[in-house]
Amino acid sequence: MEHRQTEAPPSYDSVVNQNLYDQNTPPPSYPGLQTLAANQIQPDYIPQPIIQTAAPCVVETIPSQRRQVLGTSKRCCYGGSSGTAVVVVLVVIAVWLGVRYGSRLWSLSESKETCPLSSVDCDGKRDCSQGSDEYRCVRFGTANQLQVMTSNSRLFLPVCAQGWNKNIADQTCKQLGFRQSYEDGVLLTNSSSFQSLTSQFTNTIQGSVNKSTSCPGQKTVSLYCSKCGKPPVSTRIIGGNVSAEGQWPWQASLHFQGHHTCGGTLVAPDFIITAAHCFPNESPSYQVPSNWKVYIGLVSQLRLPSPYYVNQIILHENYDPKTNNYDIALLKLARPASNIQPVCLPVFGQTFSPSQLCWTTGFGVIRQGDDSSSTSLMAVTVDLIDSSVCNSPNVYGGRITENMQCAGDLKGGRDSCQGDSGGPLVCKADEQWYLTGVTSWGDGCGKKNRPGIYSNVGRLLMWIYGKMQVKAQYFCIFMCTYTNTFI
C-alpha cells in the first residue's frame, strides 16, 4: 500500500517584518523567491514568526505558570518542613538556570549519555545514563496489540492476557510517556510465541515478562493509552475551508516571542509533535523553551485560549537541515493538556491507501507571497503520493528519503504554506484520525509537480515513543536530583 501525505510545507521567504523582533536575536534572513534560479528547488522549511492581525491579550489564569516551565509538579516533593529553605533556594536557582539557558541546559545533559560495556537492551534495567537501552522495547501492532521485545527474545512478541490488569495497563502507558491507560482488551492471535507476565510487575513491561510458547486461549493484550482521533465535530468540509470549533482538537499553534511561527500536534497530554526545522541551530533563541508558548485546540488566532509553556525541546539527533531528513521534534509541556483530545499515533506497519481521507491543517499563509498568515485554522484534503512518483526527475528527483512522505496534488493548488510547518497531516481509518505526517518542506506552495513533503510518522514511531518515555522519566530524575519539584 502507498503511504499518503498532505500538502506542501510553508514557504519561509521574505515574509517577516524584521523590525518586530529583538534585533539582538533576529530571525534568520533568507533569500526571497525572486532570487532563486528558475530550475532551483528552494526548500520552504526555514521558520520565521508570521505577521498576523493583532490578537487580544490572553489572561493567564495561573500566575505562577511561568515557573511551570521548570516544573512545579507535586509528584516529587520533600516530605518534611525542615528542608523548606533549601528547597526554595534550589527552586529559585533552577528557575533562573532554566530561564537563562532554556533547552541548552537539557541539551548539554543529553550529550552526556553514556552506556557501560555491560549494558543490555530491553532487560528492564536502566544501564545507560539516560535510559536509551530501554526505550525501543515496546510498540503497538494491528488493533493496538501490545508487543514487547526483551533481552532474551530479541523479537517483538504479543503479550499474553493472562494476569493482565488495570494497574499493569496504567504502568505500561506511563512508561511510554502517557498519564495512564484509557482502554485495554483481548485479541485472539495465531502467534506461536508470546511474552507472558511474571508474578510481579517491575518498573517496565519488558522487565516483567518472559518469552513463552503457550498462552491460554491465544488471548493477547490490546492497549490504548489515550482516547484519541475522534473529534466531537464531524469532518465534512471541502479542502481549503475554515475549520469548525472542535474539528481538529489536537491542532497546536507554536508562538515564538508572541507570534505564530509553526504548527504542532498533541499526541499525549504532555507532548506535542512538530518539526525540527522550527528550532534552527543558527538562531539559539529558537531553542530556548521560555521563548515559546503553545496554544492547543484553537481555530482562530483572534481567540487564543490559555497558553501552555514548554519544559523541553527535543530534536531528532539525526536531523539534517541540508536534506531535511529526520525533520521531527517533540515538545514536553510544563503541564498536561488533560482536557484536549490528542490525535492517534499510527500502529506499527499501518499503511494508508489513496482511498482514505487525509487532511492537512494550519494557520499558514493562504497564498505563496502573502505577507501575513491566516487568523483562522484552515484545512485542505490532500492525496498521498507514492515516493517513487515524488522521486521522479520531473518532481523532486531523488530527494525523498524513507523518512519522508509526499502528499498534495501534482496538478497544484492544494498545499500547505509558510506557517504550516510542524503541523499535522492526518488520515482517517476505522473512524479514527491518525497522525501520518509532519509538515516539513516543499518547493513553493501549491506549484505543479511540487507537492508537500512531510516527515513520515510511521517510520519514526520508535523514536517518538522512546523520547516520550525517556524524557518523561529522565526530566524528573535529572532535575529532582536538585530540586525534588520536577515532573
Residue windows where pLDDT falls under 50 for at least 5 positions: 1-46, 51-110, 235-239, 474-487
**Mean pLDDT across every amino acid position:** 75
The shape is: globular
Supply Rg. 22 Å
Descriptive key words:
487 residues, alpha+beta, 8-stranded antiparallel sheet, 6-stranded antiparallel beta barrel, 21 strands, disordered N terminus, disordered C terminus
Structure notes:
The chain has helices spanning 84-101, 103-110, 166-175, 387-390, 461-480, and strands spanning 138-140, 146-148, 157-158, 183-188, 194-197, 209-212, 219-224, 241-242, 251-256, 259-268, 271-274, 292-296, 308-315, 329-333, 358-362, 378-381, 383-385, 404-408, 424-429, 432-441, 452-456. It has 487 residues and is an alpha+beta fold. It is globular and about 60 Å long. The two termini are 41 Å apart.
